[in-house]
Amino acid sequence: MPFNESFSEFYNKVKASLADGTFAKLTLAKTIGNTDLMNIYVRPIVEQGILKLELKYKFQRDEQIEIHAIDAARDTLLKHINNPFLSAILFTTEFDLVYKLNKKRAVSITESPNTFMNPSEVLTEYLNR
């Protein structure tokens, strides 16, 4: 898969933000054309004492939720890069990181000032237990 390496680099930042407690949320957005799947929202959850990720698929008419182990979520999200999503945005309490594909499908990863001041409450509770 052509985006495998660059998305892995991006996803390592996702995992690092989960580990250090700065993760706020992750969103896949900017679809190609008019698709039924509009966004994927990712947030941490704790299931049976294990930190996992909830992927909420936002369709035009409904929503579906899947729960994945942190490493398995990477593979699931990678399937949606370039089909149909052109961007993924990691929001942390330290910075926002944007993974973007342009029209020629060249990848750019850019960092900008943080949007969120507080990390995910679920993550904070999990790390403080």
Describe this structure in words.
This protein is of the alpha+beta class and 129 residues long. Helices cover 26% and strands 45% of the residues. Strands 4-3-2-1-5-6-7 form a seven-stranded antiparallel sheet. Helix 1 (4-20) runs antiparallel to helix 2. The mean pLDDT is 94.
What is this structure, in a nutshell?
The chain has about 130 residues and is of the alpha+beta class. It has 3 helices and 7 strands; from the N terminus they run αββββαβββα.
Write the SSE topology.
Layout: H1 4-20, E1 23-31, E2 37-47, E3 50-59, E4 63-68, H2 70-78, E5 85-92, E6 95-101, E7 107-113, H3 121-127
Task: Name some characteristics of this structure.
129 residues; alpha+beta; seven-stranded antiparallel sheet
| Low-confidence regions | none
C-alpha termini separation: 39 Å
What does the average pLDDT come to? 94
The SSE string, one letter per element, is HEEEEHEEEH
Rg from alpha-carbon coordinates: 14 Å
Please report the total strand number as a whole number. Answer: 7
Broad shape = globular
Return the structural class: alpha+beta
Q: What is the spatial order of strands in the main beta sheet?
A: 4-3-2-1-5-6-7
Largest sheet: 7 strands, antiparallel
Proportion of beta-strand residues? 35-45%
Number of helices: 3
What percent of the residues sit in helical stretches (DSSP H or I)? 25-40%
